[in-house]
């Protein structure tokens, strides 16, 4: 692994559940190591089913350069779930989906069943295809922190080494942290 790998970090923009707003953005920040190189965006539907295709579009905008993709979870714009397996199969770029806390899968399943009874199987299959949720501990400026992740196309040892390189000020990788900060500027109200 290079000292400054090129990574696309992805997070959703700020949104609210309101009938007058149906969309939000996925913000992509391309970093070389922890240095920002480019910012890209794609529109997604709140609670929709288009985040997978939108992330593929973000990757294809920089496909020749990107070595890894890091996302903030697999859920964007409410319950617009990314199919991590499909993204990897269409791009062949290793993906790491990180989260700061362990997911309560039972609560997620109940919420999906209640909100999306007709699309429950489709949405839950994205969670199942993400595979195991791994736990690791990384060192940041604030000390040791627990982090959880799904990954595909990359081994556990390489994920943990990569997270140590690209996580500085918070336990989120810098590219994801920057995408989150930029996404707050896209308020839909």
Question: Given the structure, what is the number of helices?
Answer: 6
Segments where pLDDT lies below 50 for 5+ residues?
none
CATH superfamily: archaeoglobus fulgidus dsm 4304 superfamily
CATH architecture: 2-Layer Sandwich
Output the strand order for the largest sheet.
3-2-1-4-7-9-8
Q: Structural class from helices and strands? A: alpha+beta
What would the CATH topology be?
archaeoglobus fulgidus dsm 4304 fold
Give the overall pLDDT as a whole number.
Answer: 90
Q: How does this structure look, described?
A:
There is one protein chain. By secondary structure, the protein is an alpha+beta fold. It has a single domain (6-183), classed as archaeoglobus fulgidus dsm 4304 fold (2-Layer Sandwich). It contains six helices and nine strands; from the N terminus they run βββαβββαβααββαα. It has helices spanning 51-60, 84-91, 105-115, 120-129, 156-166, 174-183, and strands at 6-12, 23-32, 35-45, 68-72, 75-76, 80-81, 95-99, 134-140, 143-152. The strands form two sheets. Strands 3-2-1-4-7-9-8 form a seven-stranded mixed sheet, sandwiched between helices. A hairpin with a 2-residue loop joins strand 8 (134-140) and strand 9.
């Amino acid at each position: 692994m290079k000292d400054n790998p090129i990574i696309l970090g992805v997070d959703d923009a700020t949104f609210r559940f309101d009938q007058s707003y149906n969309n939000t953005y996925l913000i992509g920040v391309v970093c070389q190591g922890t240095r920002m190189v480019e910012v890209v965006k794609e529109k997604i539907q709140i609670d929709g089913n288009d985040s997978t295709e939108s992330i593929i579009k973000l990757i294809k905008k920089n496909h020749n350069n990107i070595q890894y993709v890091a996302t903030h979870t697999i859920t964007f714009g409410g319950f617009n779930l990314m199919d991590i397996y499909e993204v990897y199969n269409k791009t062949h770029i290793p993906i790491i989906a990180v989260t700061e806390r362990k997911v309560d899968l039972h609560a997620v399943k109940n919420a999906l069943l209640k909100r999306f009874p007709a699309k429950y199987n489709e949405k839950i299959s994205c969670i199942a295809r993400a595979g195991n949720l791994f736990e690791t501990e990384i060192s940041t400026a604030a000390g040791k922190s627990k982090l959880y992740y799904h990954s595909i196309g990359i081994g556990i040892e390489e994920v943990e080494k990569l997270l140590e390189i690209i996580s500085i000020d918070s336990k989120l990788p810098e590219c994801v942290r920057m995408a989150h900060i930029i996404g707050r500027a896209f308020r839909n109200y």
